[in-house]
Design goal:
Layout: H1 2-57, H2 72-79, H3 100-121, H4 125-160, H5 165-171, H6 174-197, H7 200-209
Helix pairs in contact: 1-3, 1-7, 2-4, 3-4, 4-5, 4-6, 4-7
Length: about 210
């Protein structure tokens, strides 16, 4: 009788352990599922904010002309005019000063991280399209920032060496950097067009709702 009791006690203990293990696995699965949902929402809202900023400013983003793009500071401010990017809006008028410079570098790394995460947490071509858009948005902001530094150097050269605008442009190779900025803007436009053509936003939202 004692032996039977030991046997059934062992069976019951094993069953309880199995049930507890199954419950733990279920809780982990639900926790992971919730974490994935949260990350999808978080990163999609950031990306959607960047899409909306582009939609508002796309018509005045980059205008072709032979003059230096002195309006790049205004464009940068408009392209960072939301809650996610508000910390770096002022960096364009203080590009090499602290804490603006540090905040800008941190934000650039954060946007790159968002781009990489999008590619991991969403599936299919829409993940690639959205991730590339976010990455190229970051690259455009970086080009604007670098170009503003160049403009500041150009102004300094003109004052220090009593140069004309054309001479100052040539001295700092302004046209080369302006062309790089235009190319970055064109790449972002192409990305945006793909997002709209492929209906990426709705497809991404559908993936979020599945969870």
């Amino acid at each position: 009788m004692f032996t039977d009791w030991n046997f059934w006690f062992s069976v019951i203990t094993a069953v309880v352990a199995i049930v507890a293990l199954m419950q733990t696995k279920q809780q982990i699965r639900l926790s992971n599922k919730q974490h994935l949902f949260d990350k999808r929402v978080e990163n999609y809202l950031i990306a959607k904010g960047l899409i909306q900023l582009y939609e508002i400013n796309k018509n005045s983003l980059i205008v072709k002309n032979d003059m230096p793009m002195f309006e790049v500071d205004f464009i940068f401010e408009q392209m960072t005019n939301n809650k996610y990017l508000e910390k770096i809006t002022r960096v364009i008028t203080n590009p090499l000063e602290e804490p603006y410079h540090k905040e800008f570098l941190i934000s650039m790394e954060n946007i790159r991280a968002v781009s990489a995460e999008i590619d991991f947490i969403f599936s299919g071509k829409v993940a690639t399209f959205l991730g590339e858009y976010v990455l190229h948005y970051q690259e455009l902001l970086l080009k604007m920032y670098q170009y503003q530094i160049l403009l500041n150097k150009m102004r300094e050269s003109a004052q220090d060496f009593n140069l004309t605008l054309e001479e100052a442009q040539e001295k700092v190779n302004e046209k080369k950097y302006q062309e790089e900025l235009r190319k970055a803007a064109e790449i972002l436009k192409q990305d945006y067009d793909i997002l709209k053509k492929e209906n990426v936003e709705k497809k991404v939202e559908k993936q979020i709702k599945l969870y």
